[in-house]
Amino acid sequence: MTENFFILMNGIKNSSLNFPTVLIYSGLDDLSFSLCKKVLKKNCRVRIFSTDKKSWRLALNQEQLRNTKISSVSFGEEVPSPSYIIYLLNRYKLADKKSSKFQKQEARIVSSVINLAKKSKTKALFLLPLHEKTKDLLSDLYEKLGKDFLKSAEANVILLGQTLGLYHLPSEQDVFDTMTREALRGDAVNVPTGEAPLSSSDSTAEAVLKILFSFGGPQEISIVGPEISFPNYFQKLLLLNPKLIARETQNTYLESPALGQKIVVAPPNDEELLEAFEPLVKRAQLGKGRLKFFKKTKRALAYFLFSLLLIFVLPYLVLLSGIGFLFGAAVLAQNQRLEEAQRLVILSQKVAMTSKSGFSTLTRVPLAHGFFRVGLSASDILTRGAEIGKHSLLIFRRSQGVAETLLSDTYQEEKPAPEDIFLELDYIYRELGFLQGEIGGLGEKLPSWVNLDGLLATISGVKEKVYWAGEVASEASWILGDDSKRVYLVLLQNNMELRPTGGYIGSFALVSVEGGKLIDFEVQDVFSADGQLKGHVEPPLPIKKYLGEAGWFLRDSNWDPEFSVSAQRAEWFLDKEIGVSVDGVIGVDLEAVKKLLDVTGEIELVDFSKKISSKNLFEETRSQIEENFFPGSIRKASFLTALSSSLLNKLSESGNANRFQLGKAVISGLEERNIQIFLHNARALRAIEGLGWEGGLPDNSCTAPCLGDWLGIAEANLGVNKTNYFIQRKVELSVTLEPNQVKRNLTIIWKNTAPEELGEEGRYEAYVRVLVPKGVVFGGGQKRIDKSIVTFSPDQDIVRAHQEAGTIIEVFPGESASLSFNWISPAPWNSEEGEYKLTIRKQAGTAADPWDIRIENILGKAILQDPSFGLTGPAEFGYNTFLARDFVSRVYW
Question: Which of 309, 548, 645, 790 has the highest CB neighbour number within 10 Å of its CB?
Answer without folding.
Answer: 645
